[in-house]
Amino acid sequence: MQYSPAHLRIHQFSALQPGPRLIVTGAVHGSETSGTRGIEKVLAELDRGELTIVRGSLTLVPVTNPLAYSKGERNGDRNLNRNLQPSEQPQDNEDRIANVLCPLLARHDVLLDLHSFRTQGEPFAMIGPANNSGDLEPVRHAELEQAMALRLGPRRIVEGWLSTYAVGVQQRLARTLPTERAELLSTHPSYGVGTTEYMRKMGGYAITLECGQHNDPSAPDVAYRAIRNALAHLKLVHETPPPARTDIEFLRLAEVIDRHHPDDQFTRTWSSYDRVSAGDTIGMRHDGTEVRAPRDGYIVFPDANAKTGNEWFYLAHPSTRAITEMLREQPVSPALN
What we know:
Structural class: alpha/beta
Order of helices and strands: EEHEHHEEHEHHEHEEEEEEEH
Mean pLDDT: 90
Shape: globular
CATH architecture of the largest domain: 3-Layer(aba) Sandwich
Strand content: 15-25%
Number of helices: 8
């Protein structure tokens, strides 16, 4: 398929029977194409009549950031998956996309956002926090989100993105002068809001699925299988719903570590979810200070090329949310919005 930077290609299938409204997005980051390939495979099955939407609706956006996709890069002008909100005076490519994407998300109940990552590692799903009415990330349908995450395919589920990002922002502010902040990621916690956070804000529920390493030949199939599992779980198609996985590893992002200097270096090539033990040396600051793991856990999203003042890596540890709550059978279509 051809994807022009001048518009979004949006495919929608609306059944004649009511049901959940699912939207699936790929290539929010232009270099992450496994979701695009998975969506294209589902589209081909729909076009050939091998798959039929029998209730609710399905919206597929194979390439959500076509400028970044055409460049083969993560961003067009900036990161679309940060500070996602409509803008009365759009300043760049991502602002213009947001003015189309945000109203589109708001018209749906469920979002499956397909991504991939730089380093080697197994696929994983990212979910939001437990139900809450707080200011940072209010959530109404955590049980539904958890139930779907258990059925997408990957065994690893991760929570804690936005709250950990917000703590990182406070640490960044504490160690920098106002004149030094121009080169940093935004120093406001809302800058961490992307597609899934915006969807929850609009009253729906959402999952980010990291399908594997960018160039892993199996990643597109992870994306495809997740879409098919979501369709069956939400009963948008006449297929047996997939069972919940029971071998889940449920982790929580706990800390973000920034790169302070261009000469800060890792002690080895890290992959997401490599295990670390308390006291292990993860990296070395430019002045010789060792960066050690404060406790047993996992490295997440290591970025050896991170810009100075921005996220270098995250640390995760087992979540304290009860797996038994996640495994209960849940309805899939509440009154949303």
